[in-house]
Every structure is written in structure tokens, then in C-alpha cells.
Amino acid sequence: MKLNHVVLLLSLVVVFGCNTTSYKSIQVGDLERSFHIRYVTSMKDCPLGADFRLWIPVPQDDIHQKITNMAVTGPVPGSLNREAKYGNLMYYFEGACSASQMDFTVEYDVARHEYSIDQKTYRQNESNPIQGDEMDIYLKPSTLCFVTPQVKNESARLTEGIESTIGKARAFYDHILDKMTYDKNHKGWGRGDIIHACDIGKGNCTDFHTYFTALCLADEIPSRFQIGMWGRYDVVNGEYKTKGYHCWAEFHVAGQGWVPVDISEADRSIANKDKFFGSHTGNRVTLNTGRDIILSPAQSGAPLNYFVNPYAEIGNTSFSSVKSNCFWTDIPGS
Length: 334
What we know:
Layout: H1 2-16, E1 31-43, E2 51-58, E3 65-73, E4 78-82, E5 89-96, E6 102-113, E7 115-116, H2 119-124, H3 149-159, H4 165-179, E8 181-182, H5 194-200, E9 202-203, H6 205-218, E10 223-230, E11 240-241, E12 245-253, E13 257-261, H7 263-268, E14 279-280, E15 284-289, E16 311-314, E17 317-318, E18 322-330
Helix pairs in contact: 3-6, 4-6, 5-6
């Protein structure tokens, strides 16, 4: 196992050279939360000797989080790869199944920095969008998030007479809080399907933020879906198993930057709805951005709706007997 640590950590340099952001201090805002993540992936019922491929999502530095002390163990060495469209990172493994169950562990420390924007400044200093810039990627639909006639009509009605991007996005945000309920007790939740979100009006974070990004698309406001691991709000002693993933969204104000929203959390704590528009809490780590993900190297199967769980193939066919567990330990002093 120790050999695998060495090979995988060296791959940071091999894949990205001196341009990797993994060791840059690019964060802004005060340090809000520090914690350790232990992410365990198990491939079960593997046919002995069969060729497998496995992709595990991993986080990277951005201005709101810093990732350090990453270590990886597994039965075969792997490489750290970056997909082309959104720049998401993943560890990739391939080889022959050496046991009926193979376990892979990725561990790292996360420092989350305060993420809250000054809405008044963003309103006052907004500039005209630059056509053909890097925002274009965030103005494209995905398989399950697109502009329906209903979404187009709602967007036009909600933004009538509103000039600022902040104002329009807040109108979308309030509309979704009025229309949707956080509820996973029905069929079809969690896929981020705009038809389901509009017709059923129930779902989890994926469904809420799909609705939001679709409304932004209708008004040509760049927006992006993000997903990652989610810890408890309060700092606790000792390691615990997280309940699962969480997702959220950001929209872009020209000349100012990205603005965070967390609509599903606002629905679950309506007294804090103003807090969840324009800021994100620190009990999260962003794993990746976007929908319809093509991995690196590309998978044989269809693009992934989103990439928060490991994905595996055996014999160039999707392999579903893959489980993951995320364990969280708050670092004292955070």
C-alpha cells in the first residue's frame, strides 16, 4: 500500500507539472472550517481476472477551499487526471480484478474559507457581459437541465422590470422556495430533471438547483451546478460518517464574479433564507462542477449526470456494484 501512496502523489507532478493549483495560496476570506475527509470506495463482487476501470472524484483548490495532505491507497496504482470541459479532478485506476472486493481510500485535509458576497456592491458595479468569453460554457443546457416553455415563461414573468442580475436571481430563488418542497418520499427525486422539478415540485438539492440553473439559462445568466461532500453544521469530536452528498449553485454577475446560492437548505430552514442567498456555509467540500461529465480517460458509457460517486466499468460496461462511504473529522481549532 505504501508504494501506491508514492506513485499516486507523484502523479500530481506528472499530470500537471508546475501548473497544478494544489499548492497555491489562492483563497480569499477568513478561514471558517478545517476538517479531514476519508473517502472509501469498494468494488464488490468483482469477477476475478476481469479488466476493470475506476474513477473516484477528488476536490481541488479554489478561492474558497484549500486541499492538502492528499494520500491514496488501493490494490493498484493510479493517476490523478483532469477532465477537459470543467477541469474536474479524479483518481483513475485500471487493472485486473485481484479479489472479489477491492477497496480504495482517498484522504485529504480541507480548509474552507468564508464565502459571502456584498450584494449591494455587485448590484452597483455590474458591467455588460463580454460575448464569447469563458462564461459560454455556463450558458449551455444539459440532458436534464434545459429551458422548457414553462421555464421560459416563468423567467420572463419573474424578471419583468428588474435590471440587475442579483435582482433577477433573487426572484428565481424566491420563486423556487414558493414552488418546491424538500421531499425525497416520492419516485424520481435526485436526478436533477427539470420536468420533474416543475411538474412535481418536490425533490432534494439536485432538483432545486436544476430549477434555478434552468431559469438562469432562460435569461442568459451564467450559472453552474456544483456538488460535493457535506458535514454537520456544528464542529464535533471524532470521526463520523456523513449522510451523503450535497449540491448547490452559483450564478455570475458580469464584472464582479460568482454568487453562491443554496436553495434547498433555505427551504429546510426558511428563517435563514436570506443567509443562503449570497453565501455558503463552510461545512462542505466542492468535488466538482457541471453536468453530463465525460471522465478522463473517457468512460465507455454515457456522460455522467453528475460526478459525486465513484464510477466503474468492467469490460467496457458500467459496473454498478460500487459503494462509497465518506468519513469526516473536524480539525481542532476550526
